[in-house]
Amino acid sequence: MSGSELGGRFFDAAIGLLERLRDEEAEGIAAAGTLIADTVAAEGRLFAFGAGHSSLAAQEIVYRAGGLALMNLLAVPGAVGVDVVPATLGSALERVEGLATAVLDSSPARAGDLLVIISLSGRNALPIEMAMHARALGLKVIGITSVAYASETKSRHASGTYLKDHCDLVLDSKIPVGDAELTLDTVPAPFAPASGVVTSALLQAVMATTAGALADRGIEPPLLRSGNVDGGHEWNARVFEEYADRIFYLR
């Protein structure tokens, strides 16, 4: 099979997953957008968290042209993408209990705020504890995860639970266990992960729904414009000033 054919197969697989999300998660996406809009309207703050490559999806909705200015990254040192050397340290930190509690207790998050947690497997201690402690603090939690992992893998948290068990709302990314869409007889391992593109699209669908929900209430969504279009910086400066008490990535 040629490289171009494999490329086409990957696009087909990713498009298939996106179509499933559009059709099967529509109700959840609408509910997530409403929950975030409720938080914004109530002057709550928004946070997003993900560890490892799941952090890349979290970063996709923070300080983003066309995105909500109020979404802040809740960063765990050493677990933001592949920002440490060796990279395997980040994976090890995901299994450390107590870390999420320390991070949340040191963050500006408080009761009435909302936290989006992205974890493909939802089985590691860090995202599970993050959700548990966030809810104990009075935050609403939206989980983005592949629910299939809960039936095909073992939890790595002392409770034996998964991220999906500690959220106010769960969106299922539909990513298969192992996160690889393609196989080939001449390649010994499955390859071509789709979780990045699929999870990012799912999150952007939620953000779009939030913007619409706010507009329906007569509230101007606090959106950012691209700094590469004329007037973009001036627009963003106004938004930053108006919502300074709810934006933490500028401090």
Protein described:
- The protein has 251 residues and is α/β, with parallel strands linked by helices.
- α1 (3-24) runs parallel beside α8 (195-216).
- The protein has helices spanning 3-24, 26-41, 54-59, 88-93, 99-105, 125-136, 149-152, 195-216, 232-242, and strands spanning 46-50, 71-73, 114-118, 140-145, 169-172, 182-184, 187-191.
- The termini are far apart.
- α7 links the parallel β4 (140-145) and β5.
- The chain has nine helices and seven strands; from the N terminus they run ααβαβααβαβαβββαα.
How are the elements arranged and paired?
Layout: H1 3-24, H2 26-41, E1 46-50, H3 54-59, E2 71-73, H4 88-93, H5 99-105, E3 114-118, H6 125-136, E4 140-145, H7 149-152, E5 169-172, E6 182-184, E7 187-191, H8 195-216, H9 232-242
Parallel strand pairs: 1-2, 1-3, 3-4, 4-5
Antiparallel strand pairs: 6-7
Helix pairs in contact: 1-8, 2-8, 5-6
Descriptive keywords:
251 residues, alpha/beta, 5-stranded parallel sheet, two-stranded antiparallel sheet, 9 helices, 7 strands, 12% strand
Unreliable stretches, pLDDT < 50, 5 or more residues? none
Average pLDDT metric:
95
Could you give a short account of the major beta sheet?
A: 5 strands, parallel
Helix count, per DSSP?
A: 9
The CA-CA distance between the termini, in Å, is 51 Å
What amount of the residues lies in strands?
5-15%
Helix content: 40-55%
Overall, the morphology is globular
Computed structural class: alpha/beta
Total beta strands: 7
Query: What's the alpha carbon Rg, rounded to whole Å?
Result: 18 Å
Order of helices and strands: HHEHEHHEHEHEEEHH
> Which strand order does the major sheet show?
2-1-3-4-5
Protein name: UPF0309 protein G6048_20825
InterPro entries: RpiR-like_SIS, SIS_dom, SIS_dom_sf, SIS_GmhA/DiaA_subfam, UPF0309
Domain SIS: 36-219
Family: Belongs to the UPF0309 family.
